[in-house]
Amino acid sequence: MKNLILISLALLAQPIAAAVGEPELELKGYISAWSQDCAGGACQLPKPGERNRPVTLRLGMPAAPGEAAAAHAEETLALPGGGELPADINFFAICPYAGKDNCAGRYFQAQVSLSGRAGAFCAVSLNAADFAPFPVLMCAGIAPDGRRFGVTLHRQPL
């Protein structure tokens, strides 16, 4: 009996989205690294590092106002000329508190945090059409020597 109660509590603790059968959103795209020399006041063209690393995430869908769901990935990409660029990727689905009709007005957010030589945080809020099948976003930080280090999230291989 004790096991039955624990299983029941575990099932009830699942997100409401799972309880009402909301589908998960599969997000498939790519992340690529690059650097850009901006020393001396003029920027050169970006130089590609590692390109087209596949990223696939499954994002649950919140079902009630005030709920959110998250998906996370960590990638470390090679930079041009050597070195690595660690990137944390977070995707969110958000049902606003003012949502009506079971999350009408649901929106999405993509966040990228870069560490190492390019400490940076970039984020964008998007509607469903701009978010899926994968959000498109560039994120970069600048080193004291004027060099930018960044990543691009993209839908098609470069």
Please explain how this structure is put together.
The protein contains three helices and nine strands, in the order H-H-E-E-E-E-E-E-E-H-E-E. By secondary structure, it is mainly β. The strands form two sheets. Strands 1, 2, 3, 8 and 9 form a five-stranded antiparallel beta sheet that branches. The chain has a four-stranded antiparallel beta sheet with strand order 4-5-6-7. A hairpin with a 5-residue loop joins strand 4 (68-78) and strand 5 (84-94). The radius of gyration is 19 Å and the shape is elongated.
List the helices and strands and how they pair.
Blueprint: H1 2-12, H2 16-19, E1 25-37, E2 47-48, E3 53-59, E4 68-78, E5 84-94, E6 107-114, E7 120-126, H3 128-131, E8 137-142, E9 147-154
